[in-house]
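Quick start: load a record and inspect it. Here is SDR family NAD(P)-dependent oxidoreductase:
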Amino acid sequence: MTVSGRTRKWTARDIPDQGGRVAVVTGANSGLGYVTARELARRGARVVLACRSAERGAEALRRLTDEVPAADAEFRPLDLGDLSSVREFADRYERERGGRLDLLVNNAGVMALPYRRTTDGFETQFGVNHLGHFALTGLLLPQLLATPGARVVTVSSMAHLFANIDIADLNSELRYRRWPAYARSKSANLLFVHELARRLADTGADVVAAAAHPGYAATNLQAAGPRMAGRRAMELSMAVVNRLVGQSPETGALPTLYAATAPGVRPDSFTGPRLLAWRGAPARSPRAGWTRGDVAGERLWAASESLTGVTYTALKA
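Running the structure step on this input writes:
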């Protein structure tokens, strides 16, 4: 923003009025997702907190309404690691909300977990971070297309720079290493946004597909992997690193909120923290060239449709 001839850092106070808008935020029970949902609700949006745990989701809703008493918010169960849950969420949304969805924030994710498989047999990081959100977006696409000015914001990570997707081994069946698998899932997020933006443009749709990342934000995401692996020393180390160098979830959520609400956000843009893509106010973020490849995007899209059974029929010629 420009104020009196100088550039001012964008903050949550700059979020435009969201009155009358409906938003779905995945992983909204804690961290970046919770802050994103809370700030959208604070600006008047009707927010659906889509969370895997009923207990944590209900608690997040209580906390949100305590912090924002006028909030119009609700919790709905969604397990991105179970495609039947994704379909149930989308079906329920259509029954209860009808044809309107202004904003879908694909925020939920897992990081550097020991090797696990989702309910449907996918490697967990690829299954949750990419395939679950691919399916959810496709199933909610009719509502997004029916809503003027709708946006889809997918949260990636600068970790994507460390590994491109392997189209021949999307589920890491040949070799699994937790960090490269995480990086590949985050590259898949960006490649999905690129291909979705391209297909939306080809059909003349009004929906904006954009991406964001938080830099290094101190959330419970960093400790989940070591905790699952029983690596107590690593879990404690991550907690120390979070305290020393991590920015708060409030600051880490700003790029997502910017991509979701700021005027003029372009399709296939990638927003992150200004300072070395690590921390600070939202700004345009660097990204790997492989996340803009049309051929790679088409191949990932086709594989994702095949694996999930979700086809974006509204975008087909």
